Amino acid sequence: MAELTLSANDIAAAITKGLEGYKPSVEARTVGRVTEVGDGIARVSGLPDCAVNELIEFEDGTVGLALNLDEDSIGVVVLGEAESIEENQTVKATGRILSVPVGDAMLGRVVNALGQPIDGKGDIVGAIMRRVEVQAPGIMGRKPVHEPLQTGIKAIDAMTPIGRGQRELIIGDRKTGKTTIAIDTILNQRGLGVKCIYVAIGQKGSTIAQTVEVLRQFGALEYTVVVAAPASNPAPFKYLAPYAGCAIGQQWMENGEHALVVYDDLSKQAEAYRQIALLL
Predict the structure, then answer these.
(1) pLDDT beyond 60 at 1
(2) Under 8 Å CB-to-CB from 31, ≥6 apart: which residues?
(3) Which residues pair with 37 in a beta bridge?
(4) Same domain for 49 and 176?
(5) Which of 45, 63, 110, 155 is the Cys-Cys partner for 226 at CB 3.0 to 4.6 Å?
(6) CA–CA separation, 40 and 65 (whole Å)
(7) At what angle are helices 266-279 and 235-254 packed, to 10 degrees?
(8) 188 and 115 share a domain?
(9) Is residue 166 part of a domain?
(10) What single DSSP character describes residue 135?
């Protein structure tokens, strides 16, 4: 058997090679624990510096949204599947407030309530991130309504004209044409310098797909963003979808451009919010 010899120089060289590129770093991170989980809601303790609407990361990488801040615990809405989340698992505060991508890069895309593309066209390139909930401008800082928004429907434009900067409620029974009025209004904005956001809340996925196809056929998708929170999505996505659509529109508004946001419909969002509030 050959004699095994070890050289101190060889050992030192091997250690030096293994340490190449290593940069020591110190990272401070607040870690808490899950005390209770159920129905898509997790109670978390040990995150005293957590802020409202801050994103919380669970052990499996799932992200949650801190909505209810109590003295001893935090009510976190799980944004995804909660089956793998269990009691006593660790959670990390990310320090990031819920934000969505905004800007002209969003035009022609279909995204979910978190701004993630779901149309199969790849990632959104060139968008900037904006917080979902920001302080709205005060009454005195707003310009008076002075310019009409043409819906393309003569009866509405002549009898009850809608102004840019105004909110309008469409009320009616089922299958009376509420969505049709909203879609026709979006189609009529072609060439008028108005960028549109269609927020679909609680509808069937097939219905949303048909609406997107109508917008594509008439060339309206090139100046429209579709935020989809179908009925199959958990309640938090239906609750957040209008906020995401509003954030996208506010970015254009603050840059001096015109934006039209259609929420179809907010009664589904109210149901989702009630469900979340009762669980929290």
Answers:
(1) no
(2) 46, 90, 91, 92, 93
(3) 42
(4) no
(5) 110
(6) 11
(7) 120
(8) yes
(9) yes
(10) P
The pLDDT tens digits of the residues spanning 209-238 come to: 999 999 999 999 999 999 999 999 999 999
Q: CA–CA distance from 230 to each of 25, 127, 177, 208, 238 (Å)?
A: 44, 24, 19, 8, 8
Q: Are 47 and 114 found together in one domain? A: no
User: Is 113 in the same domain as 87?
Assistant: no
The residue whose two tokens read 């004209």 is 161
CB atoms < 10 A from the CB of 266, how many? 15
Q: To which residue do tokens 């259609």 refer?
A: 262
Task: Report the pLDDT averaged over residues 76-92.
Answer: 90
Residue owning tokens 């949650």: 64
In a domain, 25, yes or no: no
Burial of 235 by CB count in 10 Å (0-12 exposed, 13-18 middle, 19+ buried)? buried
Residue 42 to residue 57: CA distance in whole angstroms? 12
Q: What are the tens digits of pLDDT across the range 37-77?
A: 988 899 999 888 899 999 999 998 899 999 999 888 999 99
Q: pLDDT: is 17 or 111 the higher one?
A: 111
Q: What CATH number is associated with residue 199?
A: 3.40.50.300
- More confidently predicted of 27 and 39: 39
What's the predicted TM-score (pTM) here? 0.85
pLDDT at residue 25, rounded to an integer: 72
State the total domains in the chain. Answer: 2
Q: Tell me, yes or no, whether 237 and 217 share the same domain.
A: yes
Same domain, residue pair 56 and 178: no
Question: At which residue do the structure tokens 């008028």 appear?
Answer: 192
| Inside any domain, residue 129 | no
Give the domain range for residue 257: 100-122+145-279
